[in-house]
Amino acid sequence: MVFSDWRQEPTTSDALQMAGWTRQGTIPWIKPASRPRKGGFKQSAEFITWGVKGTLDNNRDIYLPGHFTASQPRKDRVHITQKPLEIMQQLVRICPEDGVVLDPFTGSGSTGVAALLEGRRFVGVELSPHYADIAEQRLRAELTQDDFALAGPEA
Ligand SMILES: C[S@@+](CC[C@H](N)C(=O)[O-])C[C@H]1O[C@@H](n2cnc3c(N)ncnc32)[C@H](O)[C@@H]1O
Predict the structure, then answer these.
(1) Are 145 and 151 within 8 A, CB to CB?
(2) Claim to verify: residue 43 and residue 112 sit in the same structural domain
(3) What is the DSSP pairing of strand 68-69 with strand 22-30?
C-alpha cells in the first residue's frame, strides 16, 4: 500500500505495476479538515494505492473498507504527515495474522503502532534518526511484558 496525493497517484500506480505487483485498487482517504481552494475544487483527499504479489487471497474471512474519512492527528502530532491510527489499524489487517508488516518510510511509527495493536509483527525503516527515535518510543509504549519476554533480554 502506498499513500499519495492526486499529483503522484498515476505514477505510483504505474511504478507499483512495473515492480511486478498486481494493482488491486485505490482507496480514497477523505480529510474533512482540509483547506478551501479559491477558484477551484478543494483538494481534500489522499489516495492509498494497493496491490499484491501474485493474486489476492480471497479465502480470508475479512471485509475491509473501500474508503476512509478521518482528519490527520492534531493533538499529540509528532510528524508533519502522521497518519491516523484508525486508518492504519484497518490497513494492516490485510496482512495475515502470522505475517510481518513492513513500513520502509516509518516516520513516527504509526504503521508499527497499528500493526502491534492488531497483533501483527512489524519491521520499520526510517532515514531520520530523530523520527526513528520517536517511532521506537511509540512502539515500545505498545509492547507488553510478554512481548519483551519473547524478544529476549536485549529487547
Ligand atoms: C510520509 S513520512 C511517514 C509518516 C508516517 N506514516 C507517520 O505516520 O508518521 C515518510 C518518512 O520517510 C522517511 N524517508 C524518506 N526517505 C527515506 C529513505 N530513503 N529511507 C528511509 N526512510 C526515508 C522520511 O524521513 C519520513 O519520516
Answers:
(1) no
(2) no
(3) parallel
pLDDT digits (tens, 9 = 90+) for 114-132: 999 999 999 999 999 999 9
- For atom 8 of ligand 1, the residue with the nearest CA is 82
Same domain, 63 and 95: no
Distance of CA 56 to the CA centre of its chain: 19
Whether residue 110 has its Cβ less than 6 Å from ligand 1: yes
What pLDDT shows up at residue 74? 86
pTM, two decimals, is: 0.92
Task: Specify whether 53 is located in the same domain as 103.
Answer: no
Q: Is 77 in the pocket of ligand 1 (CB under 6 A)?
A: no
**Which three cell numbers mark 109?**
511509527
Residues of the chain above pLDDT 90, percent? 86
What is the residue type of 18? M
The last residue of a domain, from among 53, 71, 89: 71
Three cell numbers, residue 60: 480470508
Closest atom of ligand 1 relative to the 3 alpha carbon: 1
